[in-house]
Amino acid sequence: xxxxxxxxxxxxxxxxxxxxxxxxxxxxxxxxxxxxxxxxxxxxxxxxxxxxxxxxxxxxxxxxxxxxxxxxxxxxxxxxxxxxxxxxxxxxxxxxxxxxxxxxxxxxxxxxxxxxxxxxxxxxxxxxxxxxxxxxxxxxxxxxxxxxxxxxxxxxxxxxxxxxxxxxxxxxxxxxxxxxxxxxxxxxxxxxxxxxxxxxxxxxxxxxxxxxxxxxxxxxxxxxxxxxxxxxxxxxxxxxxxxxxxxxxxxxxxxxxxxxxxxxxxxxxxxxxxxxxxxxxxxxxxxxxxxxxx
Length: 294
Fold this sequence. Notes:
Elements: E1 2-8, H1 12-25, E2 30-37, H2 43-50, E3 55-59, H3 63-70, E4 79-83, E5 87-88, H4 94-102, E6 107-116, E7 123-125, E8 155-156, E9 164-168, H5 169-175, H6 187-197, E10 201-212, H7 223-240, H8 243-267, H9 271-286
Parallel strand pairs: 1-2, 1-4, 2-3, 6-10
Antiparallel strand pairs: 4-9, 5-10, 6-7, 8-10
Helix pairs in contact: 6-7, 7-8, 7-9, 8-9
């Protein structure tokens, strides 16, 4: 069985539409666990009453990783599928991903093809290229391209995609859950690094497709998004690079990327966004890089 885990934050309509799409299309054995991450209204209770077979966890906002991790004590599946609540199915997907994981014990995680819900023939993700060592840039293969045969070949990917990623339970038990230090952004890249360091491969499976309403929980062009994105980048460098590479990556982010981005915002009179970039970078440069033991 598969435990489908999704985090809801003021997204009742999206979450319900995602659940309904599973009910309509999915045939593989699964359970759904919804974590209500501190929504303003009692959306968790609404979901629990509307869908009695769905497991619901309620609590304060613990961010992306913390919300997903809150579901783990309730998850009964042999495989864990972390899925954004602003996604939809248009065909079954679970069996294809399970078959990919079962095809080779060295595959520790798999992500499906991700397309845009508003433009269903346009790709958001068909695998990631590796993050560059210093600038921490990567390309989402197929991004904004029309679906074509060249994107329908399964194969290794440098990172899973946080909007849709499946791991076997034994991999989770060996590697541990996603770190909660980021709150938003880069969690999947950090976790992917840990999984690969444990000796596993990560795969992209195009025979499974999900459709994504991008940016619903952290809308584009907001100070919150810029703060957490800037903080996450330098945090990732500090956690996942070493020696001279770590120093150069942090210097690049703090002395080149941050000033350039904030200046561009300031020139367009987006001063709140410019300040958010500086605050996020500073916070990420000096905060602890490991979580306190609870």
